[in-house]
Amino acid sequence: MSGFLNIDKPAGKSSAHIVNIVKRVTGSACGHLGTLDPFATGVLPVGIGNATRLFDYFLTKQKTYRARFRFGVTTDTLDPEGKIAAEGFVPDEEALRAALPSLTGEISQVPPAYSAKSVDGKRSYLRARMGEPIALACKQVTVYAFDLVGQTAKDEYEFQIVCGAGTYIRALARDLAAAVGTVGYCSMLRRTASGVFTESTAVPPDALTPETWQNYLIPTDSVLPLPVLDCSDARLYNGLSVPTDAADGLYKLYDEGKFYGLARAADGLLKTGKKLC
After folding, report:
1. How far apart are CA 16 and CA 66, in angstroms?
2. Mean pLDDT in the chain?
3. Percent of the chain predicted with pLDDT > 70
4. Cα–Cα distance list, 204 to 13, 41, 66, 181, 259 (Å)
5. How many helices (H) and strands (E) does the chain have?
6. Which domain, by its residues, includes 9?
7. pTM assigned to the model
8. The predicted structure's pLDDT at residue 223
9. Do the domain assignments include residue 83?
């Protein structure tokens, strides 16, 4: 049995904790598609069985977030679970809107010190907890849309963010505050979409039981953004390449309508790749 479970992660639980719950319920190997911080909620796709082999094919998929940033104060973790680290002023809406274009598109971003990034073989957040100095390298990330939705409190604003893989929303809160000359942190974060997975179909982890979890299983092939190719040549499934008229590229492979996995066409030949069924 393989496929995906679209989990609606609650606040206060790590992504690894949710994966362990799914593992116990399903009795299968599992893995998630993109970490959510413990304080964050929302869409956490979990691959079941052979579907975990697909992770490389989802790395460039967009993610959508609803976030609230609090200004005039910041924490060491850049989220509500940290200790107050600095104070400043609360900017007005006009200043924030004017600064958003500088953080949209291809941007350089320094990951938060409290993150899972590895520094000399040790997680950055572990070093930060021990008070060790941390210098994380800038990385290129893509922010497709960064929109101010409105003010939610005298010192807090809500944003809608669409970004590529590897983008830290906590870092966007820090950098937006810095762009207007103050400090801030991410006070609320909810992922509303991760690629084809959306919050409208996400289920809470406590809805899963050993008897019911398969009711929520999303077939592997339904979430692969690849063209379809049908081939029943037995040689192909014995590891041999077979002639094909298909254009070069990666395909979802079917054998008489039954999903098999991935196949690659190149120079007039077709060869099987990952078996996912």
Report:
1. 22
2. 90
3. 89
4. 12, 10, 18, 39, 28
5. 4, 18
6. 3-56+196-220
7. 0.88
8. 87
9. no
